[in-house]
């Protein structure tokens, strides 16, 4: 369970005497919405794998304390979460881990150099009470004959192996190249995703293990050519719906090998936090806060509230998740029956 004892210290904040009450109220609303979502119906012995591109975490204006509490509350409803777009400064990530509590651990990559890499990191956050790290971690590096126009993948994919109950799996976290709407730009994104999907399928077959390709794949439409690079290789891709705040793009996906053989999907979905935190009706509350915040002022507050202020406090992506069965005890015992 996420930790809340820092709320006590907020009561004495001279600049915001109502801070603790405000955060507590929104955490209660967030917990209610999480309980009322399909996540509230998950079975305790199953595994929930999440993925979230947390916008520029943390680059520019430092996130507010309340935002880190809300992010921790959502991630705490998963057992393991792949996080993309972590920036150079790791202090916000470490602060997030303290809010998740001592039963959570993490891995994080170095920054990816170069313009397309955007100096980003990727991380896996996992609940050690539910998930065990299996001591394999690395990055996907392409051999010379598979290079994409002579180059490696722009944002180096990161993988690690875990186990939950009977379920052994390797997560391969990706943040596919972004930018441009030309045919060449889309072909570059499709090429990156295609080679990674192929790697996941090949490694899964070779190692007799489930591979999960997870993250921000910058897929614009459910039926576009970039999405096809996942399904063409035989990966199972549940339906998550649009994951951008505008509700028009299918950026984030979780795709896996071994459907109905090693991977038994129970349910899947996304979670829209906007019904509980940084709601449209909270705009007036945040306006004086935004006007005095460090950094350039917002020129058009009405247009900037969700698109900039709220999305940089939370994200411009919704988190997605899958629930996977992990207990195969009955199946194993049944093998011994005549």
Give the helices and strands, then pairings:
Blueprint: H1 7-10, H2 19-36, E1 47-57, H3 65-75, E2 80-86, H4 91-100, E3 104-108, E4 121-127, E5 132-139, E6 158-164, E7 167-175, H5 183-207, E8 210-216, H6 225-231, E9 252-256, E10 265-270, H7 283-292, H8 301-313, E11 320-324, H9 329-334
Please give the alpha-carbon distance between the first and last residues.
44 Å
C-alpha Rg, in Å? Answer: 20 Å
Largest sheet: 6 strands, mixed
Quaternary state, please? single chain
CATH topology value: Deoxyribonuclease I, Chain A
Task: Supply the number of helical segments.
Answer: 9
| Overall spatial form | globular
**Helix content percent band:** 25-40%
Strand content: 15-25%
- Level-1 CATH class name: Alpha Beta
Question: What structural class is derived from the secondary structure elements?
Answer: alpha+beta
Kindly report the spatial arrangement of strands forming the biggest sheet: 3-4-2-1-11-10
Q: How many E strands?
A: 11
Q: In the residues, how many domains can be counted? A: 1
């Amino acid at each position: 369970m996420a930790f809340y004892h820092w709320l006590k210290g907020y009561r004495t904040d001279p600049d915001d005497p109502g801070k603790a009450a405000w955060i507590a109220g929104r955490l209660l609303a967030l917990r209610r919405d999480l309980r009322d979502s399909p996540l509230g119906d998950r079975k305790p012995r199953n595994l929930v794998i999440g993925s979230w591109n947390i916008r520029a975490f943390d680059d520019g204006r430092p996130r507010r304390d309340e935002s880190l509490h809300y992010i921790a509350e959502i991630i705490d409803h998963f057992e393991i979460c792949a996080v993309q777009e972590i920036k150079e400064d790791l202090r916000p990530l470490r602060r997030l881990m303290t809010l998740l509590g001592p039963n959570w651990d993490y891995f994080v990559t170095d920054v990816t150099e170069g313009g397309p890499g955007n100096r980003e990191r990727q991380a896996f956050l996992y609940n050690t009470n539910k998930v065990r790290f299996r001591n394999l971690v690395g990055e996907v590096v392409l051999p010379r004959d598979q290079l994409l126009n002579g180059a490696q993948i722009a944002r180096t994919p990161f993988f690690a192996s875990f186990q939950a109950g009977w379920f052994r799996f390797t997560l391969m976290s990706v943040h596919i190249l972004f930018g441009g709407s030309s045919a060449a730009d889309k072909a570059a994104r499709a090429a990156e995703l295609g080679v990674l999907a192929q790697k996941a399928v090949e490694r899964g077959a070779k190692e007799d293990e489930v591979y999960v390709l997870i993250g921000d794949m910058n897929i614009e439409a459910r039926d576009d050519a970039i999405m096809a690079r996942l399904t063409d290789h035989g990966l199972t891709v549940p339906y998550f719906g649009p994951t951008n705040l505008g509700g028009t793009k299918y950026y984030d996906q979780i795709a896996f090998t071994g459907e109905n053989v090693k991977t038994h999907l129970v349910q899947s979905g996304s979670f829209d936090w906007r019904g509980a935190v940084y709601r449209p009706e909270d705009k007036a509350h945040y306006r004086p806060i935004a006007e005095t915040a460090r950094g350039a002022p917002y020129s058009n507050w009405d247009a900037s509230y969700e698109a900039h202020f709220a999305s940089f406090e939370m994200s411009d992506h919704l988190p997605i998740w899958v629930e996977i069965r992990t207990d195969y005890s009955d199946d194993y015992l049944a093998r011994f029956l005549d």
